[in-house]
Amino acid sequence: MAAPIPFDTERYSQIGGIFAKLGARVKASRTFLLATVVFVVGWELVVYLFEIPSYLLPSPSNIAVEFYQNFTIIWRSTLVTAYETFAGFFFALALGIPFSLGVAFYRPLRNTIYPATVALQLVPKIALAPLMITWFGFGLTSKILIVFLLCFFPILLNGILGFSSLGTELTYFLTSTGARSKTGFLKVRMPAALPQLFVGIKWAAINATVGATTGEWVGGDAGLGYLIKFTSGDLRINFAFAAIVTLSLLGLFLFYLVVLVERQLIPWHVSQRSTSGMV
Amino acid sequence: MCDSITLYGVKKVYDSRNGPVHAIGPADLSIRKGEFVSFLGPSGCGKSTLVLMVAGLLPPTEGEIRIDGVVVNEPRTDVGIVFQTPVLVDWRSVLGNVLLQVELRGLDPAQYRAHAVELLESVGLGEFLKQRPYELSGGMQQRTAFCRALLHDPPIVLMDEPLGALDAMTRTRLRDDLEKLWLGSPKSVLFVTHDISEAVQLSDRVVVITPRPGRVEREITVDLPHPRDFDVRQSPEFLGYVKDISDIFMQYGVI
């Protein structure tokens, strides 16, 4: 047996590392918080000093008041949009990842489905939104499908790229061990593909709220997108802004959810190694 | 001693956009069990191709390779391979990377742990078992790759310019490490390099390959005592080998 590792020193360095990381994160988020405060205060000041009418650009304080007064309707709309966003996003995950695996590892799929999907990728998905409404009605289904379309392709394409770009030499090594394909997949191919796959998933997370909003604009009677269209049509810009801010927060929530999962799954990847790196 | 690896008229021609490229061969060669053979030649002479063909990772266009009498027509699993880059995975520690060799073979890593630690300690990595590859220097990463190639105790080790990407000082250290590892448990080693003194220091036999299409120009048996430490490397005999081989490449205008 190898000599036991000096337990306490190892432990100490680990705890020290956690504190250092936490410190760095607090520091980074403090900077971010400061920048946000400066931005909001600056916005408020600009609106005040230049006397910009609120139907053009409402001040943050006006938006906050509007948000407070219409909280119930904004909250109800948020639930609708959140449902469409999450349903479409997870639907795209559930189909996109297996599909990308199939295309990466199964030649007949690569030769048939793959060229077709690439061609479909070139169609601006938003152009299909009115069709979705025609086919699936004004309800939630059409919105979920639009979200799905906008999320599916980034996941599919990045998944294919991730699963099929294992380095030549790593592939040689894997082959020389005679590993069964399941073992090789779990221990090498999948972890190697995760960073690229997450590029696609993050991209999809950004697209998801775009899809839901578009769907609601084209044909809907509920949700934040509908609320924005409706209120800005009435020149209630304060209200529209309150809805826009809420929509952005919803998008951020989904995005950071993905980032959180990514941090847990690939802490070893170069993008995750320092807190100062990009998310 | 019996022949372990035999090449009969092995030739490789690659298809490329600009027509077929004759990479190497035809080559005839036999390598004894436990022999350290270097393939020495300028870059692009097809020596890496030769090694990949022996591992069964590339099929020869013509000819046949036999290992212990058996024709190589599929990837061999009884080899250890080291490439020019370490090819470690970042989601595993140094020890975990070495153990990957047996885990992929479906073997129980717990049974190989002690041997893996022993190998890593023998190349000075005993204190770095838990580090991730990206926390190590290039030389340490390559040492990890050596250990991974040896963990399953393969009778044949293939090394494709394993020291090629390292700085001069690290190369010198790793040459000694390699010699030590090989003396500790002699295996048939096919070692690809373009460094003449590296080949002379490590090999029982140096196979000199011509520029592309690579052909076996000459085989030189290096008759010097091991370990070939600093003093041996300064000896007239050692330098004589280096000069003889240099002369061959001078004739070809490679150096």
Question: Can you describe this structure in just a few lines?
Answer:
The complex is a heterodimer of chains A (279) and B (255). By secondary structure, chain A is mainly α.
Task: Describe the protein in words.
The complex is a heterodimer of chains A (279) and B (255). By secondary structure, chain A is mainly α. Chain A has 2 domains: 6-52; 59-272, Orthogonal Bundle (MetI-like fold). Chain A has helices spanning 7-49, 60-69, 71-105, 107-121, 129-136, 140-163, 168-176, 181-218, 224-233, 237-265. Chain A starts with 6 loop residues before the first helix and ends in a 14-residue tail after the last helix. In chain A, 33% of the residues are buried. With 255 residues, chain B is α/β, with parallel strands linked by helices. Helix content of chain B is 36%, strand content 26%. In chain B, helix 2 (94-104) packs across helix 3, helix 2 (94-104) packs parallel to helix 4 (138-150) and helix 6 packs across helix 8. Chain B is globular and about 50 Å long. The relative contact order of chain B is 0.17. The A-B interface holds A 1-2, 5, 10, 167, 169-170, 172-180, 183-184, 187-188, 191-192, 266, 268-270, 273 and B 52, 55, 57, 75-77, 79-81, 83, 85, 87, 89-91, 100-101, 103-106, 113-114, 117, 130, 132, 134.
